[in-house]
C-alpha cells in the first residue's frame, strides 16, 4: 500500500479474480453456480477445491499465499479465533500487550462478522465427528465445552464448535468488510495485477515503489509526506525488503551481483539487518485418520454436490456448503520444567484424507502453536524467489517431544469415543509418535500455510511497525506477529487495527 498525503493507493499482486472485483467469473466457478455472482472463493464449502487445482488463486508469486484480492483471507478456511491474552503478554513487546490490543480487538469485532452457526437455517451440519470428539474429549477426558471466542483466554483442555468469519452463508474477511468501506472513499484507489518489485528509497526514506504492470516496470512515487506499507505476507514482505537493499549483507551482495537491486542504491546505503526474514514460523501439523461406526464422512464436491445440498445452498445459503469442513476444534497446553508453555490445537474435518477415505473416516489435524522453539527464515532460491528454509519445523527437538506427549495424552482417552486411529497406532509410545510426526509423509511435516513471524516487532520493525533503519516504510501483516495459539487470521486483522492506531498517531490523527 502506498499512501500519498490523503490519497491511499493499494497495489494488489493478484488479478481481479475475486467475485467482488469483477473479472472472468465463469472460469472461477463450477457450472452449478452459473447465473449467480458467486465464484469458488465465495462458497465456503469449495475452499479445498482452491488448493486442488491450478487456476492462479494460490500463485502469490511463489505459492505461499493467495493470489487474489484479499490474499490468504480470500482462499483459506476462514477459521476466526481470538488469540488469548497470554499470547500478547508472554511473547509480544511493550506496546503490543493484551491491554494495548483491547481497542483494536473491539474494533475488529464491530467490523467483521463471525459465527459458529454458518447455515442460515440455524442448523449445524455434518456433526457426527463433533459428537464422537465430544464423547472422547469432553465426556471421556474432562475437556470443557466452551464458546471459543467468548472464552478466548482459556486454551487449556477446551473443546467447541469452530468459529468462521463468514456472513450470510458466504465467505467473509477483509475483502468483504474493510475493502468495501474503503472503496466508497473518494481518496482510495485499488489497482490489481500489479506486482511490486522493490521499494525505491533515498537513504532511510522511501520515495515510491517499482512495480510490474502489464509486463512493464513502472515507478510509482509517493509524496514527500507519503508512506509505504507492505502487506504481502510472511514470505513475500521480507523478500521485498531484501530487494530494496534491506537485509543480510550476504544476501544483498548476491542481489547486487545479479542486478536485482535498484541501480541508484549503492552498498553504502544498504540497511544491514539479519532480522529480515528471520524467525519464520508455520504450525507443524500431523494428520491422524480416525474411523468409527458412528461417523458419516462427507467430502465437498466442486463440480457436483448432492442435489439437495446444492439447492439448500443456492436457495437459502444453508447446508454443508456454508462452511469449509472443520466440525470441531480443541486446545491444550503443556508447562515445561523451565516454566515455559507449549500450545497445541486440534481440528476435526468432515472427511478422511490420503489412503483413508471410507464413509466412516474423518481427519484429526494436530498443530503445535505458541511457545514452540523451532523457527526458520525466508531465503532466496536460485531463481531469487523467496522460500522457507529447512529449519521451520522441528529444528528444536523439544517441539517434537512436546507435540508427541500431547498426542499420547489424548490417545489415552480415545477408546471411549468409538474412534480408531488408522495411520498411527493408538498404543504407540511417545517415542514412536515423535518419530512419526517428525518423519516426512503425506500425513506429517506438511505446510499448513500459517506463515508468520519473519519480520518481528522489535527486531525487523519497531513498535510502530516502521522498518528499522527507515522513516516511512512499514510492514503490517503476519510477518510482524509472534507465533499464536490459534489460526492466524484473527490475530493478523487485530495487528492491522493496532498498527493503524500507531501509524495514525505518528501522523497526529486518531482512529475513528
UniProtKB/TrEMBL annotation:
SUPFAM superfamilies: FAD-linked reductases, C-terminal domain, FAD/NAD(P)-binding domain. It comes from the Eukaryota. Its cofactor is FAD. Residues 66-89, 233-247 form the Glucose-methanol-choline oxidoreductase N-terminal domain. The keyword Flavoprotein applies. Transmembrane segments: none annotated. The keyword Nucleotide-binding does not apply. FAD binds at residues 196, 488-489. Keywords: FAD, Flavoprotein. One of its GO terms (molecular function) is oxidoreductase activity, acting on CH-OH group of donors. Belongs to the GMC oxidoreductase family. This is Cellobiose dehydrogenase.
